[in-house]
Amino acid sequence: MSKSTTDDSGPLLGAADIRELAAALGVRPTKQRGQNFVIDANTVRRIVRTAGVRPDDVVVEIGPGLGSLTLALLEAADRVTAVEIDEVLAAALPGTIAARMPERADRFALVHSDAMHVTELPGPAPTALVANLPYNVAVPVLLHILATFPSIDRTLVMVQSEVADRLAARPGNKVYGVPSVKATWYAEVKRAGAIGRNVFWPAPNVDSGLVSLVRREKPIETSASRDEVFAVVDAAFAQRRKTLRAALSGWAGSAAAAEAALVAAGVSPQARGEALTVEEFARIAEHKGPGGEPGIRQTAAEQTSRGEQTSGGEQA
């Protein structure tokens, strides 16, 4: 593909390049897969800087699309593995990398798959996740990757601004919910910037935000499993207007059993889920009595997917 002469993006893709590539491939971005391609080289370089990508990093990227961010990551990282579900985009991306950054082509790997089904990646273990996540699946994909690849210690994702707010929310915030607690199980989470609509093609009708997640050096100290803790979180927010005594009655087996678990954990039965830290949810999980319904062990993918469905409108 020819290099656009209307910008100084170097090997990166500019607006004219993106449209030329898409036209050649017969690609029209679809809402179904949440495809909005970044067309600004300065934006992808900013994302890489904000992510703190280092020369020794092995980066995994979800949804590379036409390769805008992929090329910027290859400039900075040791290796990049991209996971792409779209057959046409997956087939074209290696050729784009070879044409625009041939000296780094051997540092790139492509996995043609749904990110929610990925359980292993080629090459060295990933150390960072950097991605422009499709808005419609952003939270379950993020949680699945964090659960499946514990070697990832730094993450920067671009998501819908409201989703960014929910991921980074603290207890007591009105948008604090399932995504907030589950992300905090894995990492220290914070907003890392805003992205305007005009850097995308097509321009979305929502704003975007960057979220930084730095893996906890030490896991949450609890005798409960992640699945057990997440089951409490799901139950607490499924009926978020109710007190925890009522919201957790199904999880515990009865309202009385829920109250007993809450009191044992040092949590007020009259509190609501949005007031609790992840550590408090873990303490509640530890005190589930024998009368409660037995928990069902699930894979990380099943758990994160189910948890996000339970969260209802909290994802977007």
What report would you give on this structure?
The chain has 316 residues and is of the alpha/beta class. The protein has two domains: 15-215, Vaccinia Virus protein VP39 (Rossmann fold), CATH 3.40.50.150; 226-286, Helicase, Ruva Protein, domain 3 (Orthogonal Bundle). The protein has 13 helices and nine strands. The two termini are 37 Å apart. Its EC number is 2.1.1.182. It catalyses: adenosine(1518)/adenosine(1519) in 16S rRNA + 4 S-adenosyl-L-methionine = N(6)-dimethyladenosine(1518)/N(6)-dimethyladenosine(1519) in 16S rRNA + 4 S-adenosyl-L-homocysteine + 4 H(+). It comes from Streptomyces sioyaensis. Residues 285-316 are annotated as: Disordered.
Count of alpha/pi helices: 13
Number of domains: 2
User: How far is it from the N-terminal to the C-terminal residue, by CA?
Assistant: 37 Å
Percent of residues in beta strands: 15-25%
Largest beta sheet: what is the strand line-up? Answer: 4-3-2-5-6-9-7
Q: In one word, what is the shape?
A: elongated
Q: State mean pLDDT (0 to 100 scale).
A: 89
CATH class of the largest domain: Alpha Beta
Q: What is the annotated CATH architecture of the largest domain?
A: 3-Layer(aba) Sandwich
What is the N-to-C order of secondary-structure elements (H for helix, E for strand)? HEHEHEHEEHEHHEEEHHHHHH
Percent helix: 25-40%
Pfam families: RrnaAD
Keywords: Cytoplasm, Methyltransferase, RNA-binding, rRNA processing, S-adenosyl-L-methionine, Transferase
Subcellular location: Cytoplasm
Domain Ribosomal RNA adenine methylase transferase N-terminal: 43-217
